[in-house]
Amino acid sequence: MADESTVDEKAQLKAELAEPAVDDDPKFNDNVENAKFLTNGGDVKVEVETSSSGGASFTGLGKEELLQYANDPFWKKVRVILFILFWVGWIAMLAAAIVIIVLAPRCPHRPDLKWYDKQASYQVYPKSFKDTNKPGKAEPGEGVGDLQGIISELEDGHFQDLGVETLYINSFYKSGGVDNGMDVVDYKDVEPSLGTLAHIRKLRKETKDKMRLVVDFIPNHTSRNHTWFVSSQNKQDPYTDYYVWRPCTKGGAMPNNWLSVYGGSAWEYDDLRGECYLHTFLKEQPDLNLMNEDVRKEMKDVLSFWLKEGIDGFHVRNAEYLVENMTLGNELASGSGSVMTYESLIHDHTTHQPESFELLQEWRAVLDTAANKPGREKALIVTVDTDMNTTMKYYETNGKSGATYVRMSPITNYDKNGLATHLKDRIQEVAVDDVHRKIWMLDNENLDRIASLIGDEYMKALLAVQILLPGVSSSYYGDEIAMKNGVPATPSKDPVSKLPGQKNRDAFRTPMQWSSEQPNAGFTDPTFMPWIPLGTNYKTNNVQHAKAYHSKHSIMNTFKQLVLLASNESIQFGKTVVSVLKDNNDVFWMTRKAEGFSGYLVIINLGDSPFASNFKEAKISNTLMHVFHSDGDLIEGDMDLSKRADTDLQAANIPDKVDCPAECLYLVWWRPAHHGSKIYIPLYQPLEEHLAAVVLTTTFS
């Protein structure tokens, strides 16, 4: 039994804790600091500790006291000052931010350029590029270039060395063997002498993420051996109207006076069908009826097939001839050219028809559908030779996009007299267009090589024009070493050469000159006979020689430097101004400038005499830096053009150590030498007879 005194104490303590006195509550007692509950067995004790001082602690200002301070004039003034300072500071920071935004230099505008807007392309004629066949192997195409030859130059090969990133391959389709791949028998197979579909897939695999592939698309005609044509001859549906047929009689009058591009009637009588078919080119190449919906579907299917194989773009061959206006009858005489030559008629019924533009728009839609992710854009390219108003229709009509790019040449008149003025006029007419950019080519498989037309001494200068113009360049294989026309095969491999008044195109398609190795210059095994004879100068004009002998001064090195230079912003999308010097019309100059980026002054001497100029008419700044010279030598550091150029070379006091013959290009400026005097600096000391191209960069506006 518990002690009664203990129970009484617990009850008393419980009552005291349950009803504490207000004065004893710690919240109101300044002396209470801690309350502790102590246990000792079954007993509970509370120990209360008070402050040792026994005085009351400060609990803050009361309401009345705070109001006294709030109404005090001094504190009112302090609050007003702080309020004003806050808003003044806030407004000042806002104003400073606005000033910074307005006055700070903006990031320069970069247009949304796709791969085809930036990359230099290299055109390969596959039969003439490189043959990889080996003796003793039963493989088709001995002495004929093949797809494996192209593949062999991919990894650390010629294309990478040149810096080109787009590969354009001429027709490799299975053909009838008449016109070197242009007479297609099967659009979805490869000519056996060139390789197989597996080679195309290997080529795509090897170039993945490294190069873009553009191939020929030949929708205008097929071979007479194509199954479509054989079925159309026999009027087998649905192929009956796959080609353009018209009633006629054997030996009788043709349906109209239309002419083939190669001369003679564009109509050929077919014994089996008893009608005439249209052929814009050779009679072995009947024209497809592209107004037939089934044919259109077939062509879209061809595009889709190669898009699935990873092809990035298509060059539409013969785009200006795709559709004819069959209702208009005879074409009018042009008043030029002899009878039955193509030039003797005005071809307003058979070229540049509105339906041709519509076809391009349909094919562009197929390509755009395949471009389902950024970086997978597809290009549709055409080559046409017409006035600029008509050329613009290939890009767009009725608000619909057609060709992505049009290929054309920056030069059409190869007369060396007045060449600089011709370049200026031609470029001003067709090039200075920021929207409809061009692909610039100097030659191709159907044209004389530029080095033969104008001389290899002009190659560096013309390469500078081609590669640095607005748009992109497309270089035909061999241009990088200034290959010239070769000797046609005997008998000729070009069927066109057998027609009256036509050139033999064999000369433009001679094998690539890789080395001085005899007898085939590294193109094919020495035991094979090349399909076309090599150029006669291959022993000294070849890729190996360009790399090994004075490579810094070679045309190929100039090509590589220019391709690299073309990757700069002002060259890619800058505005263009072209002109010739007022006091020397043999000197062509061009400026390329994108807002916010350094500009470029391109100077080309197409004459045979030295000159001096400060190029103030180009409206450039005084300080320039030398970034390219066709001779390969650069003068380091900034150059000051503020001093007037001395137009009298004899008065320029040229140092005796400068060896510079008459062909020199002089850009004259003055700058202090180490000893403080001013000296004349020639910019160009030529190799042999090569003329000069110079590029300077500057910050001109």
Automatic annotation (TrEMBL):
Q: Look up and give the organism this protein is from.
A: Mytilus galloprovincialis (Mediterranean mussel)
Where do the Glycosyl hydrolase family 13 catalytic domain residues begin and end? 123-509
Q: Taxonomically, which superkingdom?
A: Eukaryota
Keywords for this protein: Glycoprotein, Membrane, Transmembrane, Transmembrane helix
**Annotated region Disordered: where?**
1-28
Q: Is this entry keyworded Amino-acid biosynthesis? A: no
- The portions of this protein that span the membrane are 80-104
Ranges of compositional bias, category Basic and acidic residues: 7-17
* A GO BP entry: carbohydrate metabolic process
Which PANTHER family does the annotation name? ALPHA-AMYLASE FAMILY MEMBER, NEUTRAL AND BASIC AMINO ACID TRANSPORT PROTEIN RBAT
| Short name of any one Pfam family annotated for the protein | SLC3A2_N
SMART domains linked: Aamy
InterPro entries, A to Z: GH, GH13_cat_dom, O16G_dom_2, SLC3A2_N
Q: Mind telling me what this protein is named? A: Solute carrier family 3 (Neutral and basic amino acid transporter), member 1
